[in-house]
Amino acid sequence: MGEEWSKTIEAGGKWSGVIGRGKLVCLTALDSGANVSAMLFSARDLNERYNMPDTLKAQHISHLTKGNVLMSDNGRAMVSIVEDELGWHDPLGGYTSRELTDERYGATNYQELRNGWLRSGQENLTVELVRNGMSVRDLMPVVNWFSKISCDEQGDMHYAENHCPAGASVTLRTEMDVLLVLSNTPNPLDARGAYPSVPVLIEVFAADAVDRERDYCVNYRAENRRAFENTWEYDVLRGGEW
Known about the structure:
Layout: E1 3-9, E2 14-19, E3 23-29, E4 36-42, E5 45-49, H1 52-59, E6 69-71, E7 77-84, H2 98-105, H3 110-113, H4 121-131, E8 143-145, E9 149-151, E10 157-159, E11 169-174, E12 178-183, E13 200-206, H5 222-237
Antiparallel strand pairs: 1-13, 2-12, 3-11, 3-13, 4-5, 4-8, 4-12, 6-7, 7-11, 9-10
Domain DUF1989: 8-179
Pfam families: DUF1989
Protein name: DUF1989 domain-containing protein
């Protein structure tokens, strides 16, 4: 499995790009305590995008790990999680705002500190949306890779500080052409006083063909298979292979 492309996203950094169907996207935390907020869109129609409520409801889950599929608002499989060294990624916590970043880590601005200023998730994601022809109106729920948030019996949400060790990775498989938007900024429920400085490596490889009868993600639940079938049907009707 030869690497096709790689990039390190530094702490506070952002990135977006189109990744074609049938790729493996491996995210690796280069130090402990990483968090990368991610949004997903269909590269063929940016109106189709990751749907957090349907993804969680269909799979009867409140966190993401191997076997789970990120579903679009058209009921299609966008990416599946084929490998996961952590066992828990956060789809609930959202992203940081400018106000929260200033309050928690101290006010900074680009005019004084240039690239040393502390970015927020909302600003990073908005910049990448604009680069891809969208706007702040297209902000939506994110997946926070490498973070764990649990809820107690009172419904309060708790961030697990020591969840992500250095070198932990998660690997996604693209089931359609996707626009991936990433912000390497803190989880908003991470209450530590120091702004995390954890670079994250993103690598892209070619994936093997999906064995539809044996694949773990396809057959994880009946709802998963239906989402895959919706994607396969879409590919056939637009001229791809069944």
